[in-house]
Write a structure and sequence with these properties.
alpha+beta; conserved putative lor/sdh protein from methanococcus maripaludis s2 fold; Elongation Factor Tu (Ef-tu), domain 3; OB fold (Dihydrolipoamide Acetyltransferase, E2P); 8-stranded antiparallel β-sheet; 37% strand; disordered N terminus
Length: 367
């Protein structure tokens, strides 16, 4: 009986071992993907600059003297021709009175010498006076005529000095600096005010020597303003210096085309210079822009991507030619065709020939 039970147990175990193991089924994982398209190989360099007014000047008197009064304050808006300041008028009035008196004296001398000259001319025609006497009378008359001209000029200068003793605004604008006060003694050419015109603003930026050859006057430029996030405007290159300044950089002036109320001179502006790019292999033209996460490194500093085969629904490893990296995107010049689908995430966990499915882009992914 014991032998029968033992034989039954062994037969049961052996029959259990003879069952086929359950086959392993591969899990088809979804992949994040992107359809590649070619785009222009334009590169953008953003440089920082400073905003300046298009018109700006230091205002000064053309004559010296003591300031009698100042009518404007810092920040005041002025119109062209408005009186801003005036010098004490006493010395100027005295100079004008002296010039007037000197002119009257010159006129009197001219009248006297003219009569004498006419008399000598008449007598000379009759042969009643010597030639030397006539020449002396003529010289005196000419000298008196010159003296009148000089006296007139001196009076004009005196009148001009009075006019110049009043400082006026050369154009519509705003007073940005006030450098003097009443009762101060000032010299000709000494700055009294700084005025900023109403003709708009411009950006002055230093462009490196490697970029200056790609710029041309009249080109449109996009400008950003760090003080006002989200505020952008268009500008036009107005001036390009032909000589480098500091650190081999060239001064470039960009005119701000639109009038922006909140902008002020002295603020920072960021200027985007767009130009035709050249890849590290010398490539020019249209290129594919891929996220950095779509590429993997291969031997010999080469790169590859995984291209999705729509018919077989598998991934295929594809070597590509990279040219540059811009804004976290890799520019690829060869190895892909427009419309192909590539994997853009987790490429280190993928393999050549792997069966995958495309992730629904409407489903939100979390890292």
């Amino acid at each position: 009986m014991r032998l029968f039970l033992l034989a039954f147990s062994i037969a049961t175990v052996l029959s259990g071992c003879g069952k086929e193991e359950q086959s392993f089924k591969e899990v088809i994982r979804p992949i994040a993907w992107q359809e590649v398209q070619q785009s222009s190989f334009d590169q953008v360099r953003r440089l920082s600059g400073t905003i300046y007014p298009v018109e700006e000047a230091n205002l000064s008197f053309e004559v010296g003297g003591k300031i009698q009064w100042i009518k404007v304050k810092l920040g005041d808006e002025v119109k062209r021709g408005d009186a801003l300041a005036r010098l004490d008028q006493r010395n100027f009035n005295l100079s004008r009175q002296s010039a007037k008196a000197n002119l009257q004296k010159s006129y009197a001398a001219l009248s006297e010498t003219e009569n004498e000259y006419k008399r000598y001319a008449e007598l000379s025609s009759q042969g009643l006076v010597s030639k030397s006497g006539f020449d002396n009378a003529k010289a005196a008359f000419e000298s008196a005529t010159s003296a009148v001209s000089i006296a007139k000029t001196q009076l004009d200068i005196a009148n001009k000095d009075i006019s110049d003793s009043i400082l006026t605004a050369p154009y519509n604008g705003k007073i940005t600096k006030r450098l003097s006060e009443p009762s101060m003694q000032v010299s000709p050419g000494q700055a009294i005010f700084q005025i900023e015109g109403d003709d708009g603003l411009e950006v002055q930026v230093m462009v490196p020597e490697t970029l200056i050859r790609n710029l041309s006057k009249g080109s449109d430029i996009e400008i950003h303003y760090p003080a006002f996030p989200g505020l952008n405007s268009q500008g036009t290159i107005a001036e390009i210096s032909s000589r480098a300044a500091t650190a081999n950089a060239f001064p470039v002036t960009i005119l701000i085309n639109s009038e922006l109320k909140n902008l002020r001179a002295g603020m920072t502006a960021e200027v985007d210079f767009t130009f035709q790019g050249v890849g590290r292999t010398g490539f020019k033209g249209e290129a594919f822009r891929l996220p950095i996460s779509a590429l993997a490194a291969d031997e010999g500093q080469k790169s590859y991507v995984f291209v999705y085969d729509v018919k077989q629904q598998i991934l295929k490893k594809r070597m590509v030619q990279t040219e540059s990296i811009l804004n976290n995107e890799v520019l690829v010049s060869a190895g892909l065709s427009p419309g192909e689908i590539i994997a853009i995430a987790g490429v280190s966990f993928l393999r050549d020939g792997q069966s995958v499915r495309l992730l629904d882009k409407h489903v939100q992914r979390f890292n």
